Amino acid sequence: MSTKYVLDADDRRRLLASPAGWIACGFGSGLAPKAQGTFGSLAAILPWLLLRGLSVPAWFGVIVVAFAIGVWACNVAGRILGVDDHRSLVWDEFVGLWITLLPALVAPWWAVIAGFLLFRLFDVWKPWPIAWFDRRVKGGFGVMLDDVIAGLFAGVVLYLVLLLVR
Q1: 38-92 pLDDT per residue, tens
Q2: 2: which residues sit within 8 A by CB, 6+ positions away?
Q3: Under a CB-based contact definition with an 8 Å cutoff, are residues 15 and 88 in contact?
Q4: Which listed residue, of 61, 110, 113, 155, carries a Cα 20 to 30 Å from 164's Cα?
Q5: For the chain, percent helix, then strand, then coil, each to nearest 5?
Q6: Cα Rg for the chain, rounded, in angstroms?
Q7: What pTM was estimated for this model as a whole?
Q8: Cα separation of 129 and 116, whole Å?
């Protein structure tokens, strides 16, 4: 695998020409020139808001299906780019943030902002075991797994914050 970090126009075209690439790069949000994970997380808020009225069990279904799609899409996109976990692949941010925001389904508006900040903190910081999985698990499953764990950590912290302020 290549260590290419900057996408050229050909890379972008190849990514966006594939449904898997389109999904893996978060419908284009991962193609931002910098802070791709942050842009991907911000883009994930819109579908979350549109689906906010779903029940918690329905959200678990959305997350499981989105995770499975992400494993497939990130595998394909990684092969297209020749990079296992390129920073433009941000579907994992969508799923990780949605996990984080589960407690925000029944919380005030500021919980979405707090959840976003907590998720970005855990995704960038990568405390154990997130960093351990990030280094050892590769392919689409590896791309997705570390952000799922970051989302779980951030979601637990968000839940505890919401308990404290109620």
Answers
A1: 999 999 999 999 999 999 999 999 999 999 999 999 999 999 999 989 999 999 9
A2: 81, 82, 83
A3: yes
A4: 61
A5: 75, 0, 25
A6: 15
A7: 0.95
A8: 20
23/49 Cα distance (integer angstroms): 18
CA dihedral angle for residue 66, residue 138, residue 29, residue 110, rounded to 10 degrees: 60
Surface-to-core class of residue 77, CB atoms within 10 Å of its CB (0-12 exposed, 13-18 middle, 19+ buried): buried
Look-up of token digits 């960038």: 124
**Structural domain boundaries in the chain:** 9-165
Which tokens belong to 145?
A: 């797994």
CA 47 to chain centre: 13
